[in-house]
Amino acid sequence: MHYTVTRGWTATYSAPIEVRVGEKLVLSGKEDEWDGHRWLWARSEAGGEGWVPDSLPVSSEGTTVARETYSAMELTCIPGELVTGLRQTHGWILCRRETGQVGWVPRSCLAKYQEELVREVF
């Protein structure tokens, strides 16, 4: 799916948390609700910290691990820019620019690319 950036976004963190599937996570207990979705503050085995969607951690027998590989890398973008959406979660869309750069953009900053809307109608 292709999107047009309707509102610019500047990446929030210079060193976002990144985890591999099965990697241990330490949850701080700090939570936030953003756009109706629950986020948890976590620390990776490598020591990186940041917000993760509440669907990422899974706990068993006192150990919490990442359900999937995840990077909180955000994509700085400007209005009018075209991006390709790769996946969505918790009010964010993982986008790729034509240059290959990948990162998360809030859903509220994007609109379905108009040309695709026209094709869907016909």
UniProtKB/TrEMBL annotation:
<dbReference type="InterPro" id="IPR036028">
    <property type="entry name" value="SH3-like_dom_sf"/>
</dbReference>
<dbReference type="Pfam" id="PF07653">
    <property type="entry name" value="SH3_2"/>
</dbReference>
<protein>
    <recommendedName>
        <fullName>SH3 domain-containing protein</fullName>
    </recommendedName>
</protein>
<feature type="domain" description="SH3">
    <location>
        <begin position="59"/>
        <end position="115"/>
    </location>
</feature>
<dbReference type="InterPro" id="IPR001452">
    <property type="entry name" value="SH3_domain"/>
</dbReference>
<keyword id="KW-0728">SH3 domain</keyword>
